[in-house]
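Agenda item 2: zinc ion complex prediction
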Amino acid sequence: MTAKPAAAAARATVYGYPRQGQHRELKKAIEGYWKGRVTADTLLETAKDLRRSHWQHLADAGIHEVPTGDFSYYDHVLDTSVMVGAVPDRHRDAVAADALDGYFAMARGTQDVAPLEMTKWFDTNYHYLVPELGPDTVFTTDSAKQVAELTEALTLGLTARPVLVGPVTYLLLSKPAPGVAADFEPLTLLDRLLPVYAEVLADLRAAGAEWVQLDEPALVQDRTPAELSAAARAYRELGTLDDRPKLLVASYFDRLGDALPVLAKAPVDGLALDFTDAAAANLDALAAVGGLPGKRLVAGVVNGRNIWINDLEKSLTTLGTLLGLADRVDVAASCSLLHVPLDAAVERDIDPQIVRWLAFAKQKTAELVTLARGLSQGTETIAAELAANRADLASRANSAITHDPAVRARAAAITDTDGRRRAPYAERATAQRAHLGLPLLPTTTIGSFPQTAELRTARADLRAGRLDAAGYEERIKAEIRDVLAFQEKAGIDVLVHGEPERNDMVQYFAEQLTGYLATQHGWVQSYGTRYVRPPVLAGDISRPEPMTVPWTSYAQSQTDRPVKGMLTGPVTMLAWSFVRDDQPLGDTARQVALALRDEVNDLEQGGSSVIQVDEPALRETLPLRATDHPAYLAWATEAFRLTTSGVQDRTQIHTHMCYAEFGDIVQAIDDLDADVISLEAARSHMQVARELAAHGYPREAGPGVYDIHSPRVPSAEEAAALLRKGLEAIPAERLWVNPDCGLKTRGWPETRASLENLVTAARTVRTELAGS
Ligand code: GLN
Ligand code: ZN
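Presented output:
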């Protein structure tokens, strides 16, 4: 490796930092404020302290420009809506009365006013609040938050770079406001929005910003020529403003593709590119445009969204290649560090050897500084860091944890037959009908029943040692009996045990699988004040013993009706965990699938005739670019089939997914070869049923007739009307009757009433069918 000193010294920077604080101070302060226990002043002080300590940490570590404006009380896209004055009409009074309360009203809604819709930020597990725009939207400038945070950092004597969501990405992430035609394209508002950005840039310049970063991650997705020319126009306009700060346009999460030449030609001063998985594509594209002469290139070589240490030598090689391609090359994490936990060093329950493989935000910061030093002062100045890094990488590569010969041998021996049910669907359906004897339009639920305070207390008591294992088991069994008794009385045909033993549908399994790690403090923001601790797929995966069989067979022993076994599928296990970066995702999925396959087979042995494998994350893990979809869907569907194909023909495999739009993966859903699929459909009035029918979906389906996302109880007539709609698309012999999703967030009263109405609806429509 030949990293020569660069012309301009390379520096380390980041685009954003975890917001919550080591002890989740921000979450506590905000939630305290909502409950009236914390004053607004205290909340603002807490936030200010956290910003200061994060900047100070970054600066002390050797980060050159600290990011400002990345902090948020809830979400940075919502902050951008405030910055450009895109406050929905229904929230205007609240915002005028009190800016902070109005802000939280937009985020969370109030008794009377609905919040903004929330959706996933690209393919991460962070959720943003979707801006609502329309032809009448009037943008106004409010740069107060950006200016204040920049001023705070400058006052501390730091060099700072404000970070904003770029105007093109902002519009591409927006949707038509309620009442606006669905085909309204927010991007048509670009010319109205740019003057607002111009004003914000001028304000930041006046406040002392030398550089401002504009994040345009939407440009790593497939974009139309019209969208690309809008991006060109935006940056031509912003780039030619008088007396503006220098502009750094940042991309992340994937390659820029066709957007790269557009941005390279724009009169901006720097580009930030992702050089992790997208390294080769971005390098080729950069070379093809002749590099970025006269510009600053910020190279995201350290993965900002996984939790593994960087391969420093590999990064130095990439950086070395980039040196000749731009005026100045800086080193960064590929995206905001918002997506990783704060500090791996505080993990006490993880083997210290493994902790050395982990890099959370603090460790990544140190890596960036090391890389910048190596790049600008020569690799001999970081010899000690390189040696330690080499040793840690070797320890990970050679560990028994990452290489379990039994798991590897089994995965290597998989044949095509392992991923295929014995008989085709038509034959299986006959066997299943004979075995299960279900009525037409069978009723079922998605798995979980209300997670009551008593259940959560029992789990907490078990953890704290206030309740012993036997006592806990008794409580869970009592809950299972109650849930079964209710379902029998209500007349449901295929029962569930209710999942009372599960804290979370991924964590519950991760805790029982070898090769998975749990963190104590590895919190990452999911949305607002909701933080999650994703488990870590650290090594080869195996299942030491059955994970759900005892609960499920207990439930089956209590009733004559079939009880559905209930598992989380391999794709969802990966999607909601931190994944390995030392082998292809498909290999990890296959290992998880084999462990789950054993569970499926054991459930069948234990007397389950119906087994559901949930894959709610199948679509959300879809790569950002369409050309990458087939490879992903191939391993994802293979993993599902591997999980479910070990059973006899008469055993009925169900799957469940919860999202309304899945037209683009209907072939993949077909490829799962599940006997029955349940889907969210109530809100979209059975849209999925029509999509399945249009595709010629040949198997059984249960488009949801009860929207579980609200406490509202659907009437029997309403559910029956949805069922009749479903029958227009799916024949009665293949139509199931079920809610949209699990009931764990619901209360018992509305659950009872809704499910009773659902059964009534099924009976009504059955009678109608018998009569016709
Ligand atoms: N079986 C799970 C439940 O009912 C499915 C949850 C989900 O789809 N997210 O809770
Ligand atoms: Zn669901």
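Discussion summary: Confidence is low (pLDDT under 50) at residues 1-6.
Owner for follow-up: CH.
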